[in-house]
Specification:
Length: 468
């Protein structure tokens, strides 16, 4: 460990730091790893201002990347030869005494938050998985298991503290720096380093019904009828959510449809039994049905641990939004996915995931209220391209790109609405217009105000407007 010749005592790793440096570069996806010149761990907010000044006064200036949880499958939180500001020492989670709000530091994972909310019997809108960072997830919008009831993570933000490109540390909320508060709610990491966020707290949603319902691929037609036209839409409320994935589970690796429900306030299992009846006793026959109760979101967030522990670490994720579970759309994606994963063991672990969250709360906010533009009824889907060999990485990347492009254009054709891309599941090569839509002009003006020199040059980069 050496000390940067700048103000503050900041832990810094370089290639000379050996194993610690290699560990510091590690990300959720091996495809996200880049060899940074420095990885630094600020422990107090003021140190971040010093690090920015140091990076910008080098000749040439160093590229700055910011790492929250390191879950994004791009290289946005990594740098080739620049400096990574790793927020891993800023993970404090503080529940207010009145139990109404919680302040979370920018480097915390959702698992850190759920440890506290589980202990205190409260809940917040966060990620379904514990290892996703609060920073990246929230700044990109944040769709979670509680979104049906309480909206997106950004809809639950009360205030934040941000270190700006010029080193100033500002508090932002609806009254203080309101423009900045608007921009960070959906604009990503383009406006500064968000060192803490205060969220609304909700009463505990546990016990939660969750588990697995699995079907052979031959049941997809029937399943889409259940989801789309009859039972599920009729009985579903904002307290029920599920993801449906196309995957090939071991040991048979046959194309399967796996449904992972999250049923909030499921006291004794009777609610799960009732609302999931169409999936158990309807026209589609599950090959496996195992639903139980867990106490809280901490447990839900660990429910995929076993499956993910053996998943190939070369992962690319792309996703998009869609308006409805159109059978024509889903059946075509199924065919594409079966064909792609058939007979190619290298990419067999690739999956397609569809999220079914009740859209009511998400649509209760207008497009102009936050930087995230899509507030008409919608759902989201993601392709997780996983590869076991270097040679198949490109194939998996191309598959992810082609499927999400198909979903976007087919959904536009069937619904008459182009919903663009969803920031949290982009890779950075999309156009800013397609991600921010009608909010882009305001975001460009605010980029000119808060980061005219594009110090934040990683991610879905917004060009500053030319101010006259
Ligand atoms: C397995 C998996 C499941 C997912 N499921 C969902 C889901 O259900 N819903 C959903 O909405 N998204 C989901 N995502 C997407 C996820 O929200 C994004 O990848 C998000 O960016 C991850 O945040 P992070 O802090 O871990 O990312 P990082 O990789 O650390 O960072 C991603 C980007 O955010 C920036 N950033 C991170 N923290 C800060 C900060 N404090 N201040 C400023 N900029 C910051 C980084 O600079 C970078 O540009 C999922 C991702 C994975 C891998």
């Amino acid at each position: 460990m050496e000390t940067l010749a700048i103000q503050g005592e900041i832990e810094i790793l370089t290639v000379e730091s050996g194993d610690a440096y290699a560990a510091a570069l590690r990300r959720n996806s091996d495809l996200s790893v880049l060899p940074a010149k420095y990885v630094v761990y600020p422990a107090v907010y003021e140190d971040i201002s010093s690090i920015i000044a140091f990076a910008l006064t080098q000749s040439p200036p160093l590229e700055i990347a910011v790492k929250g949880g390191g879950a994004h499958s791009s290289t946005w939180a990594s740098s080739n030869g620049g400096i990574v500001i790793d927020l891993g020492k800023l993970k404090k989670v503080t529940l207010f005494e009145d139990g109404q709000y919680i302040t979370v530091q920018g480097g915390a994972l959702w698992g850190d938050v759920y440890e506290v909310t589980a202990r205190e019997h409260v809940d917040v809108v966060g990620s379904p998985l514990w290892f996703v960072g609060v920073g990246g997830f929230t700044l990109g919008g944040g769709y979670g298991p509680l979104s049906g009831q309480y909206g997106l993570a950004i809809d639950n933000m009360i205030s934040a503290t941000v270190v700006l490109a010029d080193g100033r540390i500002v508090k932002t909320n609806r009254e203080e720096e309101p423009d900045l508060f608007w921009a960070i709610r959906g604009g990503g990491g383009q406006f500064g380093i968000v060192v803490d966020i205060t969220f609304k707290v909700h009463s505990a949603v546990g016990p939660i019904g969750c588990g697995i319902i699995s079907y052979p691929g031959s049941e997809l037609d029937q399943l889409l009828k259940i989801i789309g036209v009859c039972d599920w839409n009729r009985i579903m409320t904002p307290q029920e959510r599920f993801t449906m994935s196309f995957s090939r589970p071991a040991p048979h690796f046959k194309p399967s449809i796996v449904i992972l429900p999250t049923i909030l306030h499921d006291q004794d299992g009777s609610k799960s039994r009732e609302v999931l009846r169409p999936f158990r006793e309807g026209s589609a026959n599950p090959s496996f049905y195992n639903i139980g109760q867990v106490p809280n979101m901490l447990a839900v967030s660990h429910s995929a641990d076993v499956a993910l522990s053996t998943a190939p670490r070369s992962l690319v994720i792309r996703g998009t939004l869609f308006s409805d579970f159109f059978p024509e759309l889903l059946l075509t994606v199924w065919e594409k996915w079966v064909e792609f994963t058939e007979g190619n063991e290298d990419v067999r672990a690739s999956t397609v995931l569809w999220d079914l969250t009740h859209p009511r709360s998400i649509t209760g906010v207008s497009s102009a209220d936050t930087a995230l533009p899509v507030r008409s009824p919608h759902y989201w889907m993601a392709v997780q391209g996983r590869s076991t060999t270097a040679i198949s990485i490109k194939t998996a990347q191309e598959f992810a790109t082609s499927v999400v492009s198909f979903v976007r254009s087919k959904n536009t054709e069937l619904s008459g609405k182009d919903l663009g891309w969803f920031l949290n599941l982009t890779q950075g090569d999309e156009s800013a217009e397609d991600v921010f839509g009608t909010n882009l002009p305001r975001l460009s003006k605010l980029k000119a105000k808060y980061d005219p020199k594009k110090v934040w040059s990683k991610g879905l980069v917004i060009d500053p407007a030319e101010l006259t």
